[in-house]
Amino acid sequence: MRHVLLIAVNFVREQRWPILVLMLWVVGFSVLGLVVNLHSAADDVLFIFKQLGVYGIAFAVFFGASAIHNERKTRRILAVLSKSVGRGEYLSGLIAGITLSTGIYCFAMGIAGSWILSGAGFPIDRLWWLMLNLLLACLLSSTAAVLFSTFMNPLFATLGTGLALGLPAALARRFGTEWGYPLPAYSLLEVLLKAAFGPQPPMPMKPVYIAMAEAGIFWILAWLIFNRRDIAVAVD
Amino acid sequence: MPPVLEFDATSKEYNRFLGGRVIALQDFSLTVNSGEVFGFLGPNGAGKTTAIHLAMGFMRPTRGHGRMLGRPFGDPATRRRIGFLAENVALYHRPAEQLVRFYGALNGLHGAELKRRSREALESVNLYGEARRNVSRFSRGMLQRVGLAQALINRPELVILDEPTSALDPLARVGVRELLQRAKNEGTTVFLSSHLLSEVELVCDRVAVLNKGKLIRLGKTSELLQSTHQAQVIARGIAPGDFAGGLASDGVIKFDVPICAQRAAIEKVWTLGGEVVSVNPLRRSLEQLFLELTGDQTRAANQKDFT
After folding, report:
1. Residues of B in contact with A226 (CB under 8 A)
2. Could you tell me if residue A22 is inside a domain?
3. Chain A interface mutation, best of B78, B94, B106, B153, highest count of A Cβ atoms under 10 Å
4. Distance from C-alpha of B209 to C-alpha of A133, rounded to nearest angstrom
5. Which residue in chain A is spatially nearest to B149 when comparing CA positions?
6. pLDDT tier for residue B124 given thresholds of 50, 70 and 90
7. What's the domain range around A42?
8. Domain assignment of residue A231, yes or no
9. Do B57 and A81 touch (CB under 8 A)?
10. B217: Cβ–Cβ under 8 A, 6 or more apart, which residues?
11. Could you tell me if B80 lies within 8 Å of chain A, comparing CB atoms?
């Protein structure tokens, strides 16, 4: 467990600049909350808040699709895996690091949202539930991206993840929410995208459970593949 | 005592992108014993790094298998007892001491012991004065030394070093040589892959030469270098043309003769009115042996003339 934490914290440290870029969006959103009249522009502010949620998912996919590739390309993976670190621990560390990074972002979004949106009458408990949904969607997306990245380069891993998560999203939009449940990243995000001031719709729990189970399955599949891969290409 | 590192008919093949296969290592068998400093030589593309990566578990062999400290290759728990420095060392950008601590923690060290060992490891490579400086600002030689520090932090039983001195200046090389000698005296086994043949000649007990994925020579360094059956005679008072291959230098004549013919050569010098200064068994340099074994006979001959 200590190895996983060390690798996760190291990942966050290494990705500090992309995380800072994400945080700047939240800062920008906060500034917007200060300068606009919340009562007249509440829906617009909520719309921007939803956009921030989509950026979080996009970054989770990019982090996941490129994490292993970057480490292999820079050959830094060799020094890490020459220690008593198993491949499974290494993958867990990367996924935990991505989750930690997106978690920091979701938490910052939650803080900014609580301050700004609650001023316009959005219930805070609902907002934090939305942030948990968003974090889970990020976890599922990044785990899928890591799975694809164990046997594809970052571009194809990103495209593969986009297709795998986008197809249920398209079906859900065409035929109804339940069609998105087989890979529920969109279903989790949809709760945020459909959020509105006023009466709140019921919050579905099914995609939450499915996402947690599937993240675990993707992790196991990624480990099985990564465990059989040659991580170093001979340089001589 | 069981071998520290053992390759047993290990082969590694790669698939080419457009079909076909590349054989990086072919039926490679080798045993490294406890406490020795083992030199691993070969030209570029010989398969040295492939063999090291197989041992570390970064790759899986296509055929055959191997053991490190009694456990199959790639066992994470065994790596706790190993120190490894990769060729072209690549490390995270952070202060040197933090970095060494990070790698030490990945090897199960913690608390005061981790702190002490990281300080000792940096001191052993003369970098403790730079402990707080970010390694991104280090020269390549300094990076190589931080790499060595992270490899030694866990006081390993086996150190595997892939080109450890390639980026170092002569002074730092002497430092690394002393470090290896110290490690050997403490009972650590050292597996050293290097292009710097003079370095290997000085520190290694045994040497293996690899070429095109195959082991072509294995033996004690001293035996490999003295396996020539020639002697060099140095004489004065004779003409260079009196002996085949005779070279005049600093007022003396040098020529090589087979060991079995050295008595006759000495008598011939005396008959010609000359004086024998010395007769020594000809000792090849590792460089010369390397060139001979890897098929570059012309350069080997030139090297011999040069020496």
Report:
1. none
2. yes
3. B106
4. 59
5. A79
6. confident
7. 2-226
8. no
9. yes
10. B207, B208, B209, B224, B289, B293
11. yes
**Does ipTM exceed 0.90?**
no
Instruction: Work out how many domains chain B is built from and give that number.
Output: 2
Three-state DSSP state, A199: coil
Candidates B197, B194, B220; CA nearest to B207 is: B220
For residue A234, being part of any structural domain is answered with no
For A36-89, write each residue's pLDDT tens digit.
Answer: 887 788 888 889 999 999 999 999 999 999 999 988 888 899 999 999 999 999
Contacts of A76 in chain B (CB under 8 A): 90-92
What is the pLDDT at residue B205? 87
From the list A13, A12, A82, the residue with the least C-alpha distance to B153 is A82
A37 found inside a domain: yes
| Parallel, antiparallel or unpaired: strands B158-162 and B252-258 | unpaired
Do both B66 and B97 map to the same domain? yes
Final residue of a structural domain among B190, B205, B222: B222
Rounded Cα distance, B51 and B6, in Å: 11
Give yes or no: residues B264 and B145 share one domain.
no
Interchain contact, A83 vs B88, CB within 8 Å: no
Q: Which pLDDT band, with edges at 50, 70 and 90, does A234 fall under?
A: very low
Report the alpha-carbon distance of residue B54 to residue B137 in Å, rounded.
32
Chain-chain contact of A10 with B49 (C-beta, under 8 angstroms): no
Structure tokens at B80: 């706790």
Q: Which of B106, B108, B110 sits opposite A80 (nearest CB)?
A: B106
Tokens of B251: 């007022």
Query: Using DSSP, how many helices (H) and how many strands (E) does chain B show?
Result: 11, 14
Minimum-distance CB partner of A235 among B60, B79, B88 = B88
Q: Which domain holds residue B160?
A: 5-222
Q: CA-CA distance, B215 to B206, in Å (whole number)? A: 14
CA dist A81 and B103 (Å) reads 10
